[in-house]
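CATEGORY: protein folding

GOAL: derive structure tokens
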Amino acid sequence: MEEITVTPTEETRPIGQLSRIGNLFFDPVKTFKSLDIKPSWLWAFIIVAVVALISSQLLYSLTIKEQLARISSVPNISAEQLEVIKGRMMNPTNRIISIVVTPIGVLAIFLAVSGVLYFVFSILLGGNSSFKRVLSVYTYSSLIAIPSAIVTVPLAFAKGTPKISLSPALVLSAEKAETFLGSFLSQFGFFALWQYILVSVGLSLVYKFSKGKSFVTVGILWLAASVLIALFSNIFKGFRLG
């Protein structure tokens, strides 16, 4: 009997890791179709974790400086107390801890967000896909951290603050930027919007949902998360400054 050989087509053949990364920025549909065929997330996670680690270490001194300025503005704090706090914050051990914790934190966020997306799309909406595919979509969409770091890190040094916002919060005054509204609007930055689009497109492909359904679902989750982040940000800010 003659053996029949099926030649993989462009639609059924996964592309390599470098192609996936490159196409994410220029042809994301191609990347997500490849992830649907053969999901993978490890290399994208490593890249994002390295970018986060480098960015945080480059901005470490600026972050410490801003935290000290915030603490020094607390009423009734003495110079002696401030020096003790400064000594603790400048302890090299803290920097080592931050180096260890950063990639762990990135992984925890990826797993948590992917878990929520999988629950909503698979359980609540009845979609058919795997957690690994969802994790792959979210992890690759997070490669937006690369252009984000390229833009925001130099801006942070230029402005002397690690808090760089490319969001509607820019129109607020310095006082209002520290309120709930400022925290909420800061969640809708340019790169966050870019990632939202990528996640929505990716999930629509791996779940075979319409783009409209995917965009609305991810948008609702994004709004809910932005409200929670803004609330917790202001609550903890009150504890720090109170």
Notes: The two ends are 82 Å apart (CA to CA). The chain has one domain: 17-241. Residues 117 and 225 are 12 Å apart (CA to CA). Confidence is low (pLDDT under 50) at residues 1-9, 238-242.
